[in-house]
Specification:
With 156 residues, this protein is α/β, with parallel strands linked by helices. The chain is 17% helix and 37% strand. Strand 1 (40-43), helix 2 (49-56) and strand 2 (71-79) form a beta-alpha-beta unit.
Length: 156
Amino acid sequence: MIHDNALGLMIPDSEVAHFISWSNEKLKDLDFSPIYKVDIIADAKDLRPEDILSIADASDLWGQGIDEPLICVHNVPITDGHVHLYGGSTLKFDLCEGISAVKFKASEEEFAKIDPGQGCTTVDIIGTCKRNTGWDNGAELIITDYEVTGKQEWYF
């Protein structure tokens, strides 16, 4: 059955390599990096737990047609021993005093990339504001995406 706005495409097996090569050439100058429309941009040193909690506590405001706010936090320092991988898939570290950053479904590779060893890793984070309903009822940023922006080893 054919219907309006349907599209089908068939490439013979013998032409797949040529199609991939052609596509790579045509798309080589495009940037496929993720782009996020954020509502707040803050430096880690300027962020306060009460800021995260006030946004988290307004969760009844977003829903149908109103997106949950995204926040971008720049220059987050992660030092030796302050990043952990729990249960093999939950990455957690202190974003700044009184605020945790959490990424669910993280991999060992992500942990290794962000773990500073004996030093400091600096990251920029995109995430949503939550109240930790577990043991401390504190401020959390649930990580949507992050980028490692620096890494420095310390020598003793």
